Amino acid sequence: MSSPMEPARITGVILAGGRGQRMGGVDKGLVDFRGRPLAAWAVERFGPQVDELLINANRNARRYAAFGPPVFGDDLEDFPGPLAGLHAALGHAAHPLVATVPCDSPLLPLDLVARLLAGLREHDAEVAVARALGRGQPVFCLCRRELRASLGAYLAGGGRAMERWFAAQRVAWVDFDDCAEGFHNLNTAAELDEAARAG
Ligand SMILES: Nc1nc2c(ncn2[C@@H]2O[C@H](COP(=O)(O)OP(=O)(O)OP(=O)(O)O)[C@@H](O)[C@H]2O)c(=O)[nH]1
Ligand SMILES: [Mg+2]
């Protein structure tokens, strides 16, 4: 385990492997938001916070590759949810800590990873997870790579719920009440339109 004095080495993963069903089955990361694809917003805001950036996508791998970072899909088929992306990410990461963000929160906090890291260290936790105004934001997490075996077992047993898996680890919840709007995520075409017009 790293001491508080050591610089952390962190792999960041943009989770873009979902079905986008509430948006009509579109590949959400490729959808336009204020003139650029949603994934481009994540690359721009999250990329500078990490030492290595990867994209997890299950469709359109070539289009995602055009953003620059390496692209990988889930190990499990049939879109079992974000934990499948995290599991694959823990296998692909070059660094011992893995941070995730979803592809559909284009205004994500610019100090997300620094604050998750501080929480992880403060509580000597295995995973740090964002929370805003009392509401867990499980797809924004920082996870030790050693948890891959635990996560693999949880998924193999049929587990799919992020918060339930976190609860079985040493977890630190990190509050972002001061910038809760940064976690606003876009699930439907109406939400996308409204957020795009608000800018
Ligand atoms: N790798 C991977 N990521 C997923 C999967 N399902 C959801 N995600 C990602 O998890 C994040 C949160 O998921 P949702 O907001 O529900 O997105 P979604 O599943 O594409 O959308 P819906 O189908 O409408 O639920 C998004 O970044 C998704 O891309 C999956 O099966 N595999
Ligand atoms: Mg979903």
Automatic annotation (TrEMBL):
Keywords: Cytoplasm, GTP-binding, Magnesium, Metal-binding, Molybdenum cofactor biosynthesis, Nucleotide-binding, Nucleotidyltransferase, Transferase
EC top class named in words: transferase
Cofactors: Mg(2+)
Pfam families membership: NTP_transf_3 (PF12804)
UniProt GO BP: bis(molybdopterin guanine dinucleotide)molybdenum biosynthetic process
Residues binding Mg(2+), per UniProt: D104
Location (main, coarse): cytoplasm
EC code: 2.7.7.77
Cellular localization per UniProt: Cytoplasm
Known role: Transfers a GMP moiety from GTP to Mo-molybdopterin (Mo-MPT) cofactor (Moco or molybdenum cofactor) to form Mo-molybdopterin guanine dinucleotide (Mo-MGD) cofactor.
Summary of subunit composition and partner proteins: Monomer.
Record protein name field: Molybdenum cofactor guanylyltransferase
Biological source species: Pseudothauera nasutitermitis
Lineage: Bacteria, Pseudomonadati, Pseudomonadota, Betaproteobacteria, Rhodocyclales
Gene name tied to this protein: mobA
